Amino acid sequence: MRLKRIEGQVRGVQRMIEAEEECNEILNQIAAIKSAVNQVGILVFENHAKDCIYKSMHDEENPEQSFNEIVGMMSRFIK
Q: What is the reported pTM?
């Protein structure tokens, strides 16, 4: 649902630009889109991190691999 809402917001910004609306209104909408995308990213990261942590707790052979995956993913997300 969140992604569909973001898609609608992006289309709205496109219409605003085509209609030559005020820059500050367009930028407000872009800021809202950025925030919404970040929230989706956080949810995806949280779910994946939980899965990796669970795996690492039950993988006695290579728990470090799951930990490194979480750290790498966090690094990419933060940039």
A: 0.73
